[in-house]
Amino acid sequence: METKYGFTKMTLSEFENWMSRLRVGRTILKIQQHHTYIPSYIHFTGTNHFERQLAMKNHHVNENGWRDIGQHFTVFPDGTVLTGRSLELSPACITNQNANSICIENFGNFDLNGDVMTTLQKESIITVTAVLCKKFNLLVHSNTIVYHHWFRLDNGFRNNGTGGNKSCPGTNFLVVIKSVILKIILLLWLLPSYLDIS
């Protein structure tokens, strides 16, 4: 693990160990999946995790007027995970849907014809989500693992993408990930000792 600018960078195994020791007082009921869109893969050098995370924080604070970076975690193309906002604070990610949520930003543009998600990032997204579901005793389904696209931008009403929505986490996200929910269920069912972080 390495810490810089107030963020901690972790491998998947470090993330699992860190989560197993972490105590969170806030009730968690949902995990939100997002993509950064910009920055995308062309902005990632393989060594600039902290600089990219700091740039996102600066944009969120200085341009959006938020108190901190919006997301709790960012998953990078090389599969590493960086911390963001404290888990004791609600994220700033989906209008009227942030209470009791954890926000994961997946670094890249996963719209059709955007970035081609790496295998390392795909596996990290699935594993991070599974670890969080296990940690907070969340049943794995579409009411606990949610996509920004499912909620209207203006009021946060869930309409499953029928109008007034962003493409986030990307129009190609589900094509690449296939069924995140199914993979997480399988991971939790087939590898309980691997994810036993209680």
Can you tell me about this structure?
The structure is a single chain. By secondary structure, the chain is of the alpha/beta class. It is built from five helices and seven strands, in the order ββαβαβββαβαα. It has helices at residues 12-21, 49-63, 119-135, 173-177, 180-190; strands at 2-4, 7-10, 30-35, 73-75, 81-83, 101-106, 145-147. A seven-stranded mixed sheet has the order 1-2-5-4-6-3-7, sandwiched between helices. α1 (12-21) packs parallel to α3 (119-135) and α3 packs across α5 (180-190). The longest helix is centred in the middle third of the chain and has 17 residues, at 119-135. The two termini are 21 Å apart. The relative contact order is 0.18. The model is unreliable at 191-198 (pLDDT under 50).
Concise synopsis of the structure shown:
Helix content is 29%, strand content 14%. The protein has 5 helices and 7 strands, in the order ββαβαβββαβαα. The radius of gyration is 16 Å and the shape is globular.
